[in-house]
Amino acid sequence: MVDERGRRALLGSLAASCVVGLTGCLGDSNDEPAVIEPDVDTSHPDDGGAWPSFQYDAGNTGHAPGPGPTEAVERRWRFETDDSVYSSPAVVEETVYVGSNDGGVYAIDAENGDRRWRFGTNGAVSSSPAVADDTVYVGSEDGSVYAVDEGEERWHLETDDQVVSSPTVLEETVYVGSNDATLYALAADDGEMRWEFEADGSLQRAPAVADGVVYVGSDAGSLYAVDADDGEEVWRIETDDWIQSRPTVADGVVYVGSNDDHVYAVNVDDGEIHWTFETGGSVTSSPAVVDGVVYVGSFDNSLYALSAASNGDPDDPAPETQFWSVGGFLEVRSSPAVADGTVYVGNEDGFVRALSPETGTERWQYQTEDWVASSPAVVDGVVYVGSGDGSVYALEEP
How confident is the model at residue 94 (pLDDT cuts 50, 70, 90)? Predict the structure, then answer.
């Protein structure tokens, strides 16, 4: 999988398109994007001192309550592992937790980048850690889910295939999928099985959990809603290709991308389609949803800002408005993060970029040495992100 990403990044650099709305290119200050500006308030009264799991919370909203860098950044530190970092960092109590394809889970000092500990597994760790009550929960391609405290194993559960899904932890339960096509609900304290749910395909991405329901997509193209208490299916919808996007739940709607090139918005109550939106490529990026705006990337080399509201057409439900699209990326696997009035996203071309949520205009970019499929974590004015070059970066304003 990693070799394929590297090959695509190399070849795709020859053919990446440059579109901002209908005109312009990323980084081109001479062209103003043609956009409809959403009314976005991405500020938050709290100071936002943590990013405990993939896309910040159990709903995978990607919206953090805290400041992020809006001007050009420099590197605070770079932490090197022995293989590519697909995993997305979690940040809690001044410690950065992240997996590496070298098989390790790392705890890194958020201030200076020093290693605090490393926990070794027997497979690549592309799963993103979730941190709750001083315990780190993470999957490994060795087929196990681990609970780790201060670098020591508390418990692990063996599944029948690789675990690349990132755990979601809520109310003392760990929800995680496996490539054995099973969704597991485990007691956070001891790993005891609470229930398991069999899907129609591998479950490679993090579940979302909201209001007593777990949402997860499968490689067979199904989006499931599963009762969080007993593991019974509530509803499911089918798309026309794999779902490798993590669902996002906000305001009674679950949003998810599919390899059939579409983004789906589905009512949480009954699984009815709220709207669909067609991009020009597979959508494995997970949406970030803030104040009625859905930010999501596509393999068509673009990042989109879409209205969460529907156009109200029962025959062809679509987003009420496409606010803007920004091209000039390569395949966008990284999932956006939004903090304090800025959208942050990584890209296959090796850049991390910061964009205006209202217009998509680029605010800054930082180049790593390989693809960035990791999704940024934004805490106390610092962006933490992994790269295919094997490193974790901490980026901040000078």
Answer: very high
Dist CA 171 CA 46 (whole Å):
22
Instruction: Please compute Rg for the chain using Cα positions.
Output: 19
Q: Is the pLDDT of residue 28 over 50?
A: no
Q: Which two three-digit tokens encode residue 327?
A: 């091209």
Walk across the sheet containing 95-99 and list its strands. Answer: 90-92, 95-99, 104-109, 115-120
CATH fold of the domain at 2-396: Methylamine Dehydrogenase; Chain H (2.130.10)
What average pLDDT is seen over the chain?
90
Task: Return the domain boundaries, the chain.
Answer: 2-396
Distances from the Cα of 379 to the Cαs of 52, 91, 131, 198, 338, in angstroms?
Answer: 10, 7, 15, 36, 11
Q: What are the tens digits of pLDDT across the range 29-69?
A: 333 334 555 544 433 334 468 999 999 999 999 998 889 99
Q: How far apart are CA 243 and CA 202, in angstroms?
A: 10
| Alpha carbons 85 and 102: distance in angstroms, whole number | 9
pLDDT attached to residue 328: 86
As given in the structure block, the two tokens for residue 387 are 């790269």
